[in-house]
Specification:
Layout (H helix, E strand, L loop, with lengths): L6 E10 L3 E12 L2 E14 L6 H4 L4 H20 L4 E6 L1 H5 L3 H12 L4 E2 L2 H13 L1 H7 L8 E7 L4 E7 L4 E7 L3 H8 L7 H19 L9 E5 L1 H10 L7 H4 L3 E3 H12 L3 H5 L12 H15 L3 E5 L3 H9 L1
Parallel strand pairs: 1-4, 4-5, 6-9, 9-11
Antiparallel strand pairs: 1-2, 2-3, 6-7, 7-8, 10-11
Helix pairs in contact: 2-4, 5-14, 7-8, 7-13, 8-13, 9-13, 11-13
Length: 325
Amino acid sequence: MIMRSEKTEKLAAIDIGTNSTRLLAVHTLIKPCKKILYPAITREMQITRLGKNTSRTGIISPESSRRTIEVLGNYCMFLKNKDIRKYRVVGTRVLRQAKNSGSFVEMVYHELGVKVEIISGVEEARLSYMGASGAQFAKLEDEENKQTKNILVIDVGGGSTELILGTSGGKINHIESIDIGSVILSEKFLLHSKPRKTEILELEDFINKKLMPVLSKVRISSHNKIIGLAGTISTLASIDLSLKHYDRDKIHGYCMTRERIRDIYERLCATDLEGRKMIAGLQPGRADIIIGGAAIVVKIMELLHVEAISVSESDILEGIIYSIF
């Protein structure tokens, strides 16, 4: 029952990534001095591959633009039908890097009347942290009893990887955004259906060189909670659980050991593309990029000596919703 001093509001977030375009729409209940997130009205994800070949060409292709705008149009129609007027649309690494990202943003605005914000790597990391840790709601709901346990959030995307170190009380102590992701690494190094050993070695060597100077700045201890999010890590959990169909409730909070992730990674490397498409828990649309993403996760955990990682299905989308508040 909603009291007179309370009100409900509909909010939405759209994330345009290198590999996928996603929508989260939610009900919120606003009480005096409190804002509570209600269950989602909808969660949608479409693999649009806006960043396809951008690491080679430097531009977003017309086909990728059209594919993404079509999905955005469907999302906008949904928001209109549900009378959701307060929303935020953000673009990440592919729109930061592509030479023609301005043209894409203008096209979206011209065709759909939607303003796309191209956010920085630091802002992307901040929003991901907010979503993964639930820090803003923890602070609003329980200011006196908030925990101060340290949290490291690892966000492996299609075009970039973010590492954010902070506390469950919402304080962010350190942010690193690195230009390595599942899409760009797979396109750069994995040129055969079944990767050759030389390709894997070159891939891992490149990741090591990118990560080592960055990870030397990330100080963690055995008391840190390690949270992984985004498509690569969720997919690894889905594979580990052998899920025939995506199940958010089973994936969210699932804990994976470094040894188990290494086993899955080696299995993926030993399988050709068609074989990977048949693996339970792996969406066929991710089969061509999962090895690049898994390699990043393995190398981060090895270099940081992390034994296990918890999976969060709350990520930048929830962070965007919190930011609207």
